[in-house]
TrEMBL record:
Protein name: Malonyl CoA-acyl carrier protein transacylase
Record-annotated active site: S92, H200
Catalytic activity: holo-[ACP] + malonyl-CoA = malonyl-[ACP] + CoA
Enzyme Commission identifier(s): 2.3.1.39
Malonyl-CoA:ACP transacylase (MAT) domain sequence ranges: 7-300
Alphabetical UniProt keywords: Acyltransferase, Transferase
GO molecular function: [acyl-carrier-protein] S-malonyltransferase activity
Length: 309
């Protein structure tokens, strides 16, 4: 039996016909998606089966879809008497999945928050073009220095995913220029991220205010399994502190590399990704100390279950 941490992905893992190997046979998955669809007033199951892709990629649908996917996989894990992790953590939106699975937040409340969160994020892009880029193979301090050139905060470090991968986001032209500067300064590779919203940038501050307003009326309890948050790399037990972290998370950097380091510092070297893809698993691949497992389909779910339990 392995000591392990559960990791929950954020936006960017969605695709048409995702979770098909689960949905064909697992009634639990169909029921979880039906429950979610009733809460947000839209047929999510039909959307992931048929698309269109541009609708799946619209944040007000993407965020509930990914949340629901993670919750359904976790429910199956528990139904099979899967072992509890020592820690949970979610990348961006995935923090809501972690809070639901740790019994700190009701699934119905999380759905309400993330549907509105996605909607508000989309509105930021109505009057401005935005861009998100991954910078590969450049020191984070150099990337920070380049972002600081944009004194109006139009370029931000959205996420430090690993030693080798940093995500920047913000205004389209400025992010593009910043990425050219990164290339000049030695970045090995730069590519676009499939997001049309300036995630975790200062442009998202108005969204944070709206999230604060929504969270006022939401009950959050002490997590039954510690959840490491994105902004402070801390496990909070207090409801108000958890809410503050979720508010700041909207426009602050996701400190993912530090989260993985924190887990390893607790002598945990097995990571299990609970979601419809393997993006977080791939981020860990270069770390020779880690065993990284995912649950993106039934085959991988069963392999992970066998390894851990």
């Amino acid at each position: 039996m392995a000591l392990f941490a559960m990791l929950f992905p954020g936006q960017g893992v969605q695709y048409i016909n995702m979770l098909s190997s689960f949905l064909q046979k697992e009634k639990l998955f169909q029921n979880t998606f039906k429950e979610a669809s009733e809460h947000i007033g839209y047929n999510l199951l039909k959307l992931i089966r048929e698309g269109p892709l541009n609708k799946i990629n619209n944040s007000k649908y993407t965020q509930p879809i990914i949340l629901t996917s993670s919750i359904a996989i976790y429910k199956l894990w528990k139904k099979c008497n899967g072992k509890n992790p020592l820690f949970m953590s979610g990348h961006s939106l995935g923090e809501y999945s972690a809070l639901v699975c740790s019994n700190a937040l009701k699934f119905s409340d999380a759905l309400k928050i993330v549907a509105l969160r996605g909607q508000y994020m989309e509105k930021v892009t109505l009057n401005r073009s935005c861009l998100v880029k991954a910078i590969i193979g450049l020191n984070k301090n150099i990337v920070k220095k380049i972002c600081r050139k944009y004194t109006s905060n139009t370029v931000s470090i959205a996420s430090i995913n690993s030693d080798n991968q940093i995500i920047i986001s913000g205004d389209k032209l400025d992010v593009y220029q910043a990425s050219l500067d990164c290339k000049k300064n030695g970045a090995q590779f730069i590519f676009d991220i499939n997001l049309n919203i300036p995630v975790h940038s200062y442009l998202m501050k108005p969204v944070a205010k709206k999230i604060k307003h929504i969270l006022k009326n939401i009950e959050i309890k002490k997590p039954k399994i510690p959840v490491i948050n994105n902004v402070d790399v801390k496990c909070e037990n207090n409801s108000e502190n958890i809410k503050k972290a979720l508010i700041k998370q909207v426009y602050k950097t996701v400190r993912w590399k530090e989260i993985i380091d924190f887990i390893q510092s607790k002598n945990i070297f097995t990571m299990l990704e609970i979601g419809p893809n393997n993006i977080l698993t791939n981020l860990n691949k270069k770390n020779i100390n880690l065993i990284s497992l995912n649950t993106s389909n039934k085959k991988y779910f069963l392999q992970a279950f066998k390894t851990i339990n």
